What does this fold into?
Amino acid sequence: MVEPALAFIGRIEVEMKIAVYPGSFDPVTNGHMDIINRSSKIFDKVIVAVVNNRSKTPLFTVEERMELLKKSVVGLPNVEIDHFEGLLVDFIRSKNAQVIVRGLRAISDFEYEFQMALMNRKLAPEIETVFMMTRHKYSYLSSSIVKEVGSLGGCIKDLVPESILPYIIKKLKKN
Ligand code: PNS
It folds into this structure.
């Protein structure tokens, strides 16, 4: 049994609502940032968790992806950057979190997200998945499209946080 994370408000003890926003973040885009910003206003704490998936070959290492996220969430004091390997629900339990946040862009995301949410519920019925609709202006955006456009010399300004744009361009040029 995992103990809940507690905070004191005056003399009253309240359970902190902690959400985990998991993903590949290879790299973080403005679409991800929209979900991070909005969820940070709903939950007491948001842990953005970078997956270390050994069966995938990401462009950025876990350390690089975390570094880019850390630079992007400066100014959001209740957002933490972390990473995990293995089952997401195990990570969530280890952090005393109760909620998984996922962004939804289009109908095409739905099937995969639905399957994941149901599997996570089967594994951990106490953990709830919450979906946030992306802002319309980011509905076409993904890390893959940013990498493709950037590596072919297209402009990716406005697609990723401005503070990390030079790092991403440098990495894409190197590859
Ligand atoms: O950004 P992504 O690549 O769509 O994120 C997918 C992620 C990391 C959320 C998903 O692959 C995941 O949760 N991986 C951890 C392994 C796991 O728990 N699998 C069972 C749930 S389907």
